[in-house]
Amino acid sequence: MDETAASIAEKVRRHEQENAAKVRGLAEAGVTVFRPETCVIDSGVEVGAGTVLEPFVQLLGKTRVGSGCRIRSFSVIEDCTVGDHVLIRQSCVLTESTVEAGAKIGPFAHLRPGSEIGEEAHVGNFVETKKARLGKGAKANHLAYLGDSTVGEGSNIGAGVITCNYDGVNKHPTTIGKGVFVGSDSTLVAPVTLEDGAYVGAGSCITRDVPEGALAVGRARQITKEGWATARRARAKGQA
């Protein structure tokens, strides 16, 4: 049977009351909530003292947030564990993930289930992770996808890097060691391992393991044809 308008309104009223009571409890425990009427905080959520929640934040399910964090506007965090002194910038979506102390997330980052972000690691704008573990101080700051991946301590994932984890039938892992540098716009075709200290040149397609301390470059050699562009424009002008 369809709900009546009155019953829906009653549910909304009860939810607003429960939400307001939750916010008051957090405030009494030392949590700062800006514009609390805009935030959604489920009853099972825990937040440590000194944390700041900006307007339009949603903390859902069994989420636990540590002390001294800042969660900026429009972020949605569901069934996650967030350590102390974590910064989650604007418009991030986190689900069933763990973020350890001192990490920085976003803006516009998406942590899908099974993501584990280590201490002081950075997951930046438009980066998506899924079943990915980033070690202490690892960075993926721009426009990357890390799926079924392990990224070692201190490694740097360049802009536009993608782990190709799905072959159309099965998922495969990518293992990146400590202190690895993966240049921008590279594709890592799983299963593949980049050992400690390896370096991948920008624009590479990596299909084989890279040994410790090695450089891997997988791209075609550049060809430059002098005067080609000028001649093409001249032909096009003559045909106009």
Explain this structure.
By secondary structure, the protein is α/β, with parallel strands linked by helices. Helix content is 15%, strand content 32%. The chain starts with a helix and ends with a helix.
Could you list the spans in which at least 5 consecutive residues all have pLDDT below 50? none
The total count of helices amounts to 2
Shape: elongated
The total count of strands amounts to 28
Question: How would the blueprint of this fold be written?
Answer:
Elements: H1 5-28, E1 32-33, E2 40-41, E3 46-47, E4 52-53, E5 58-60, E6 64-65, E7 70-71, E8 76-78, E9 81-82, E10 87-88, E11 93-95, E12 98-99, E13 104-105, E14 110-111, E15 116-117, E16 122-125, E17 128-134, E18 139-142, E19 145-151, E20 156-157, E21 162-164, E22 174-176, E23 181-182, E24 187-189, E25 192-194, E26 199-200, E27 205-206, E28 215-216, H2 228-239
Parallel strand pairs: 1-4, 2-5, 3-6, 4-7, 5-8, 6-9, 7-10, 8-11, 9-12, 10-13, 11-14, 12-15, 13-16, 14-17, 15-17, 16-18, 17-19, 18-20, 19-22, 20-23, 21-24, 22-25, 23-26, 24-27, 26-28
